[in-house]
Amino acid sequence: MLGSSSSIIRRQQFLIRALGGCFKKQTHQRFTMQSMMSGSALEADALSVLRSITPTLDPTRHKGQAGKIAVIGGCREYTGAPYFSAISALKIGADLSHVFCTKDAAPVIKSYSPELIVHPVLEESYSVRDEDKISISKKVLAEVEKWMERFDCLVVGPGLGRDPFLLDCVSGIIKHARESNVPVVIDGDGLFLVTNSLDLVSGYPLAILTPNVNEYKRLVQKVLNCEVNDQDAPEQLLLLAKRIGGVTILRKGISDLISDGETVSSVSMYGSPRRCGGQGDILSGRQVIQ
Ligand SMILES: NC(=O)C1=CN([C@@H]2O[C@H](COP(=O)(O)OP(=O)(O)OC[C@H]3O[C@@H](n4cnc5c(N)ncnc54)[C@H](O)[C@@H]3O)[C@@H](O)[C@H]2O)[C@@H](O)CC1
Ligand SMILES: Nc1ncnc2c1ncn2[C@@H]1O[C@H](COP(=O)(O)OP(=O)(O)OP(=O)(O)O)[C@@H](O)[C@H]1O
Question: What ipTM was reported for this prediction?
Answer without folding.
Answer: 0.91
